[in-house]
Every structure is written in structure tokens, then in C-alpha cells.
Design brief:
22% strand; alpha/beta; 180 residues; 7 helices; 7-stranded mixed sheet; Rossmann fold; globular
Length: 180
């Protein structure tokens, strides 16, 4: 298993920028896996994607992986650093999936992560710090992402919380809960 890094935090906190910095510092070829589904009719979304693209070095390989993340990760070369941005978007792409199928998807993902020899950096949105979502789909998203991120943190060598432009290394600052 390569090095696994998890970066989480709220929207517009600097998560992606921190992940990009760590990927650049890896001194390996970087593969950027974007999980977003492109929607050419959503101009604001296109603008966000363009901002991310403009920040990345030209020599990084970009792959669009909205759903086949496990399969794609399983095929990366061991001498690379893979940056996946973001797990929240990946989870959103599966919200229609039944719970039992989602649990299989998550287990396949975690099993794959443990087998990949490349370094992996995952960006995940932090949810659940505010009010309980008013709609079932919002609660489903929050619960699925929260559970996924917690499980991924267990097999990560480093976990960062990025908020207001500051990265905190939770691996050194925090104490894992029992059962993690």
C-alpha cells in the first residue's frame, strides 16, 4: 500500500489547494482524478472547474472519474501520486444507489485503496457541522460521506483538516476514537 492522505474541511477552505501542494511535493508524476460530472449548462460549476484546472501544473494527467473510482485506482502505476478531488462529489454521484449496493461500493473502494501501491491523496468535504438537512436526500448524502471519510481515515497515514486557509494535521494533533 502506498501512502494515503485524507484532507477534509468546509467549502472554500483551501482543501484542494493543500492537496495540490502535497501532490507537488511528492516528486512523483501526478494523476488528478476529478469526480465531478460535467454540466455545460451550469456556468457557475464550469467556472469552479476552470479555476481548479488553471491552478494545476500542465504536466499533471487529468482523468474524469465520476463513478469508476475503485477500478481506476486499481490500475494506477505505483510510482505516481494520485489526487482525488472530491469524495463528496463521488458520493453524490451514487445517491440513487440502494444502501446495500452503496455499502458494497464503499467496501470495494476501501479494499482497493489498501492494495494500491501509488501514493493517494483524497479531498473530502466536511459535512454535518450545521443543521440536520431538511430533506432525506440531504441526510443520506451527509451520512454516507461522513461514514466513508471516517472509514478512510482509519487506513490513512495522514489526515488533515483544512479550514479558513489553515491545514491542521489531525494525525499528530488528535486522538483516534476506539473502534477506528
Amino acid at each position: 500500500m502506498g501512502k494515503v492522505i485524507l484532507i477534509t474541511g468546509p467549502a472554500r477552505s483551501g482543501k484542494s489547494e493543500w492537496a495540490e501542494k502535497l501532490a507537488s511535493q511528492s516528486n512523483k508524476s501526478v494523476v488528478y482524478m476529478a469526480t465531478a460530472l460535467l454540466d455545460p449548462t451550469d456556468q457557475e460549476w464550469q467556472k469552479r472547474i476552470q479555476q481548479h484546472q488553471q491552478r494545476r501544473p500542465q504536466n499533471w494527467i487529468t482523468m474524469e472519474v465520476p463513478t469508476a473510482l475503485s477500478k481506476t485506482l486499481a490500475n494506477v502505476k505505483p510510482d505516481t501520486c494520485v489526487l482525488v478531488d472530491s469524495l463528496g462529489t463521488w458520493v453524490a454521484n451514487f445517491l440513487e444507489q440502494e444502501d446495500t449496493d452503496w455499502e458494497k461500493t464503499v467496501q470495494d473502494f476501501l479494499d482497493t485503496v489498501e492494495l494500491v501501491a501509488a501514493d493517494l491523496i483524497f479531498v473530502a468535504e466536511e459535512t454535518g457541522w450545521g443543521v440536520v438537512p431538511a430533506y432525506p436526500i440531504g441526510r443520506k448524502f451527509r451520512d454516507r460521506l461522513g461514514t466513508l471519510v471516517r472509514k478512510l481515515a482509519v487506513i490513512s497515514q495522514a489526515v488533515y483538516l483544512v479550514t479558513v486557509g489553515h491545514a491542521l494535521n489531525l494525525t499528530t494533533l488528535g486522538t483516534p476514537l476506539e473502534g477506528n
